[in-house]
Amino acid sequence: MKSGLSLLNKRRFLPIFVTQFLNAFNDNFFKMAMVILATYTIYDDPKIVASFNAWAAGIFILPFFLFSAMAGQLSDSIDKRRVILFVKTAEIVIMMIGAVGIYLESVPIMFAALFLITTQSTFFGPIKYGILPQHLD
Question: For residue 1, what is the DSSP state?
Fold first, then answer.
């Protein structure tokens, strides 16, 4: 039986691996950029900064709690290719919204983008694992 690490040597696995890696990196990078901006630029009061960080963590987790079951059902019932195309296109649009929020230092826009990007990740999660059997032996 082959090791799971042997997949990293397969050329056909590389795009899937890179997509999964960049999706996770993107979400966490945006959240950390938002928190660092708020901590060192937007707010001066440590209590407000702590509250902001707690809200950011809660908003980051909330979509996984709310939409995981729906995302699993969707990934089983609809063509995976269509869902991936929609979800990855939405990721681009959402990150543009997030960039505007960071540029304007607008906390509501940043929170909205954080909620939307983690919702996107919630719907991408079941798809990224469900499509593996179609592409790998």
Answer: -
- Residues 5-42 have pLDDT tens digits of 666 666 777 777 788 888 889 889 999 999 999 888 88
Q: In this structure, are residues 116 and 62 in contact, taking their beta carbons and an 8 Å threshold?
A: no
Query: 52: domain range?
Result: 15-131
pTM of this prediction?
Answer: 0.84
Say if CB 98 and CB 117 are below 8 A apart. Answer: yes
Q: How far apart are CA 77 and CA 79, in angstroms?
A: 7
* Integer Cα distance of 110 and 114 in angstroms: 6
Residue 75's alpha-carbon distances to 2, 9, 79, in angstroms, are 28, 27, 7
52 domain residue, yes or no: yes
